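Q: I'm writing a short methods note and want an example of a predicted protein-small molecule complex. Could you take the sequence and the SMILES for nicotinamide-adenine-dinucleotide and return the bound structure as tokens? Please keep the output block clean; save any remarks for afterwards.
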Amino acid sequence: MKKTINVAIVGKGAMGRTHSASIAMLKYSFEDLPFEVKLHTLVTRNKETARADADALGFENYATSFEEMLKNPEIDVVDICTPNNLHLDEIRKAVEAGKHILCEKPLGISKAQADEIMSLIDGKDKCYGMVFNNRHLPCIMRAKQIVEEGKLGRILSFRSCYRHSSGTDPEKNAGWKQNKDICGAGVLFDLGSHVIDLLSCVLGDKEENRIKEVKAVPQIGFETRKGADGKEWKTNAEEAIYVIATLNCGAVGTLEATKICVGANDDFTLEIFGTDGSLKFDLMQPNYLEFYDNKAQGTPVGGYKGYTKIECVNRLNDIIPDSVLPGMRAPIGWLQGHVNSMRNYFMCVYEGKTPSPSFADGAYVNEIMELCLN
Ligand SMILES: NC(=O)c1ccc[n+]([C@@H]2O[C@H](COP(=O)([O-])OP(=O)(O)OC[C@H]3O[C@@H](n4cnc5c(N)ncnc54)[C@H](O)[C@@H]3O)[C@@H](O)[C@H]2O)c1
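A: Understood, no commentary inside the block.
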């Protein structure tokens, strides 16, 4: 009989829904998982709709109090999908209750919070994981392999941009992600946290590839908007940020996050340039990773030099076993990164291993975001 891991998801917004779907997908995607994950309890504040919300997302139970949920010994994992300013308090309580924790990015709303979280979990033997879902896309796994194989040589520079157009409509109400008191900052803590993490992930989390210093220029495109209540609201956080970053190894590059970019959808790109080769990832074209081999023969008549589009589709490069749904030849979609993220995390819960990304990865991202703000 398979071990059952019971999860409580906190928050039923965009990510609560995404995590519920991704966890439900695990049993359809992977045939030989040695465990099953049960959507045990949905934690939501709305007493009137709680039962219906739990039913709609496939949970057996609901709770309208986070603290009550923690008292239930059946719950193994607390999956935090609430606004950023709640993460620290929820993590503190879940650690005290002895639960495994999966936390959406960012870990905290400041470096001090991330440091506090790291000391809370110090010496605890539970599984504390972050959701930086883009790490789990097949083309990113492939990019990481190419860097590990040394195919890029010495890293010279990089460029990463995460662009949305969601803030370009001045009539759109500002939500909590536009409010630094809840989000921690603006787009830096939202899209920017993915940018910092993905660079660190692809380069291999090594000390030499850590960011040493940054020069950041924030931008507010719309000084006022309507707030959540429809009344005029003064923008209090950056809507775009442009960062020049230097790594310990000397490589220099740019990191950009913006929600005021007309024409963008979920435009996340990462380019890395080394002495022996270059890589280009584009989330809008996730079936391909572009690789330039500077050692390829350049003659006669150009030889084999030039960017190669390496097909990645849903091939998981032996890091994760073959997925049956979607199949290995299937084009990749955004949700797949989340499904793979869930498999990675719950496998660590099952095996008692430290997940990657871990809370330490989350704390690093907080540290760099703070550098960008100062
Ligand atoms: N990895 C990704 O791709 C990704 C994408 C978007 C958001 N996020 C992160 O996920 C988290 C949630 O973001 P979202 O987009 O789902 O936000 P959201 O606003 O869509 O949902 C948040 C939910 O939390 C609920 N909530 C607020 N306070 C609560 C409380 N005390 N107890 C229970 N529920 C409470 C709200 O009612 C809402 O349903 C954030 O940390 C965000 O940064 C990650």
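A: Remarks, as requested: The chain has a mean pLDDT of 95. The first strand starts at residue 3 and ends at 10.
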